Amino acid sequence: MAKSGTASTVVTRDSSRSAGTRTRLIDAAIETLKTEGFAGSSARAIAECASVNQGLIFYHFGSVANLLLAALDTVSVRRMEQYGAAVEHVGSPTELVDVATAIFREDLDAGYVAVLVEMIAGASSTPGLGPEVSARLGPWFAFAEQAVTATLGPSLESVLPPGDLAYGIVALYLGLEMLTHLDGDSGRALGLFAHAKNLAALLEALSPPAAGQA
Questions:
Q1: Are 40 and 31 in contact (CB under 8 A)?
Q2: Is the pTM of this model over 0.85?
Q3: Phi and psi at residue 128, in whole multiples of 5°?
Q4: CATH of the domain at 122
Q5: DSSP H helical segments within the chain, as ranges?
């Protein structure tokens, strides 16, 4: 720890080094959650992955749980940017399902959603973690609601409230991720996306034409 009287230039370099260490630990926590699960994401395992002393975890984050939450935050920011760009130009329900299918395949390969799934699983055994993880799901519900509302339009509310549909989509997505990793077979999950596309096409066919269209 720096003593009083330390030159400001040293503090600046230390701050830069500190930020680098935090990033290294967060990346290691993400990788450990993906490969070892919540139960295996101990201070020792994460420190070994980052090739640092495990005491740095407590110095920078105070606890392993705080580090894992920081890892979840980082993954959420990365994926939200990716998802937002993917749905930006979607104009129909079938296009939305196509995008969702591509994202699901990518998430399976990269293991990103596994981080959230593992944190949800760990929340039941770690006091105080549940509310923190739950709060971090809020932006995902909001994103899903915005996506379906923008794609399906006002007519959606007469069939199903967008907020309820968004909740169901997020829950289904996480459940499919969990089951796919459990049995190692993505075929059934991807089959559901294919069925969803058929339903989306039917919805498009039954929807009234937009104003000004014959």
A1: no
A2: no
A3: 85, -10
A4: 1.10.357
A5: 8-36, 43-50, 55-61, 64-87, 93-110, 112-123, 129-152, 162-183, 187-206
